[in-house]
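Sequence only, no structure available. Ideas?
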Amino acid sequence: MPQLVAIYRSPAYSPLQHRVNDTAILDATVARLAGRGWSTTRTTELDVEQGRLPVAQLYLNMCQGSLAAEQLMPLESDGAVVVNRPSSALNCHRHRLVKSLGAGTLAFPRTIIHSSAAPLPPPQQLGMLGTGEAKVWVKRGDVHAERPEDVVAVPLKRLGSAVAAFAARAIPWVALQEHIPGPIVKFYGVADGRFFRWYGAEAGFAGDRPPINETTLQAVAFDAAERLGLEVFGGDVAFPAPDRPVLIDINDWPSFAPFRDAAAGAIAEYIQDRMERRTHP
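Reply:
I predicted one. Tokens follow.
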């Protein structure tokens, strides 16, 4: 019987209701694979950080912290199947995300990665983020938000105090990011395109969808996922115009909460197909 290990995300990276939802999507995916004959073992990001990891043919990896990713990197180097790979999870850390996506052709907000303890960048540099009363986003520069105050929007004149608040919480780096106007869309996907869902962030998944070009949304989402090496992913896109998507954020193994059952089935099928191709090339 083939063995899989499911690694559950640290509660620190699953704030508020996300803790239940993150656990639920991994539980549902594991159940689907168990129904296909996999023997399953559950473990945690903390166990991985402490060097405790069972041997298996397949690892379902929700870890987001650097320490756990570093512990998992030898598996990736040895060719083990890890979904998502630790390198792709690290690529989603905001300072790497900005470097990977901000310098390419994919539409991405202008962003400055800045030490929270340093003086603000000079006015001519901040001018790229907006002018006057323009809203600027301040986000922690490493992992995704752990608390609501990890992502805030302030006018330029309040930028100094906003950054100081991050420094006071011992967050060493912040991302200063321009505001992109227009509706925000949340998306969820699996790498080969067998699953893709989206909804408007303001109205929610049960509300009216904004009038955007779904083809361009899907193209941006899968382009970003491929660049980062993600197989199971989700994120946010702003639409300053209906056919002009701008990627705001992308992350590994989101909760898929509005579409959990369908997502778990698609993820399990994707992984099963990948494992079968590996066994029978």
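The mean pLDDT is 92.
Hope that gets you unstuck.
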